[in-house]
Amino acid sequence: MINTIRESEETTDFYRKEKNCESFERSKVMRRFNAIMMVMVFMFTGVVSVTQAAQKFRRIPVKEYVDKMKAGWIGQIIGVSWGAPTEGRYRQIMPEKDMPPFRDSLINDAFGQDDIYVEMTFLRTLELYGMDVSIRQAGIDFANSRYPLWVANNAGRNNLRNGIAPPDSSHPKFHSCAGAIDYQIEADYSGLIAPGMPNVVIALGEKFGRLMNYGDGMYAGQFMGGMYAEAFFEKDVLKVIEAGLRCIPVECLYAEMVRDMLRWRRENPNWEKTWELVDKKYRSPDYYISQLDVKLEGAFVLMGLLYGDGDLDKTMVISCRCGSDSDCNPSSSGGVLFTTLGVSKLPDRYYKQLNEKAVFSHTAYTFPALIDVCEKLARQSVVKAGGRIEKDANGEEVFAIPIESPKPSRFEDLRKPGPIADSSFTKKEMAKITVMAGKDLSEAISKFAPGWKLAKCGEDMNPGLLAEWAGKKSVLMTHPLDRNTGCVLSKKVKIPGNKKTTLHLVVGHHPEGDWTLLVKADGKELLSTSVGKETAENGWMQTDVDLSDYAGKEINLELVNQPSGWQWEAGYWAKIELMSE
Predict the structure, then answer these.
(1) Could you tell me if 167 and 87 lie in one domain?
(2) What spatial distance separates the first Cα and last Cα of the chain, rounded to whole Å?
């Protein structure tokens, strides 16, 4: 190509020098020049078209895809199992001596881990309804999950069960931990079924991450999924991280954290020094916005990848020793790094004892079934993204995956949330949600107040039937579902027509908090009063509500433990009694 260009330049100079020659000679030179230029154009366009053809698709044999996808799951499982004994025990760097020893049997310790099985709920939804499943169906399926959850997962699921449809189920107006770690933990599946397809990862984040997380909380999962997607084609950890970074808005705080980590890695050969920088900045009030804030935990995932030097054990150990959520973080860093290699390149100590018949808790999947469904969904993803499944010279299947630039979600700021979508489930949709919001206290309420029902009880402060509280025995403790939704005790009662009927209540509060007691009859508010230090002597308050206006009628009576300031909002019920005279 270069020689052709030089020849062209020389020919042009020659033509200038001979401009006084006869017309015939000029035409000869001109024809030579034109011929050379035509060759150049052909060669140039040919090179461009060949380059474009080569860059249009990335190809990976299906067997290699499955090999790497399996390794990604094994990395997750080993990371979470290895770090599990240390979870939440350290806010400082964990001493090296406290790192649990590696065991070959770790591969079988994660079948009951929520850090693994929650994302399988999303896979099941995709398996049943396909890659085009609606976010509302995804929300219904998540609402019907029966495993225990915490933080954003629990808050989002309770909102769904309470009729708040996505995307509002994750909006900061409806819960206070929208920027927590939850979707970051669960987003591995998105990259593992979308090799080399960042926009599929981003769309899955908008569909499943939106159920519980907002802003940085959702972006973190899209970043993780983007790293997994790239790990099928790239072994360089820096390039894998950069690929994940391109999947999220440049102005979000999570992206700032990723850029900080890349810079601090260049500046500090010692990961402990970088840990100090992370701790100082990302535990500060300007950045630590939510409980289990995802930026801090995400930095610890990257700590392992950036300082692990490509060593599998070292990567997971560093992420674990950073402390905090020290099982989830090595699960993520291990999963990404394992994916870059594939099972065929892993030491067999990681997987040789795998029990392939064991079923992951709350799912329909054994490990082989999990791999099968991921391959099935990856095939759908490839075709949906405009790719194809080809055959190579040996007749083996190959994914041909279109190369495309990531298109990140719109920017949302947790500190200044945008408006809600005002999205609610319809009655038809609510009929499909078979699990009530909040903690199930049916057994406790049946013992304390037979005939009454309890709904929308939050799990904070561990509600239930207490043997004794503040000098009284057999006390029912409840807690609001969230800062906007009270816990409701209800009963249909027939009010006598010839007697005065009064509802008699003895209720208490936590010494450090208060709450609002609401009494309603057929939806009409009969009483609203504070239960706190100023109204409850020695922690207890007695109140009577006259029900004479409903004499001879059957009514739905509701007693509500309504939040007032979201501090120690538990309600304590010593007596619920209907008295007639």
Answers:
(1) yes
(2) 106
Is residue 155 within 8 Å of residue 481, measured between CB atoms? no
Report the mean per-residue pLDDT for the chain: 91
Q: Which DSSP string corresponds to 474-536?
A: EEEEE-BSSSS--EEEEEEEEPPSSS-EEEEEEEEE-TT--EEEEEEETTEEEEEEEESTTTS
| Contact between 177 and 383 (Cβ < 8 Å) | no
46 with 70, same domain: the answer is: no
Residues 94 and 161 in one domain: yes
Question: Percent of the chain at pLDDT above 90?
Answer: 85
Q: Among the listed ranges 26-40, 81-95, 109-123, 210-224, which one has the minimum average pLDDT value?
A: 26-40
Is 339 in a helix, a strand, or coil?
helix
| Domain's final residue, options 376, 402, 428 | 402
Contacts of 47 (CB under 8 A, 6+ apart): 1
CB 248 within 8 A of CB 224: no
Residue 482 resides in a domain: yes
Q: pTM higher than 0.70 for the full model?
A: yes
The 10s digit of each residue's pLDDT in 470-490 is: 999 999 999 998 888 899 999
Predicted pLDDT of residue 521: 97
Q: Supply the pLDDT for residue 542.
A: 96
Tell me how far apart the alpha carbons of residues 331 and 326 are, in angstroms, rounded to a whole number.
9
435 within some domain: no
Task: Print the domain residue range for 561.
Answer: 442-580
Q: Flag whether 429 is in a domain.
A: no
State the amino acid at position 531 in one-letter form: V
Q: How many domains does the chain have?
A: 3
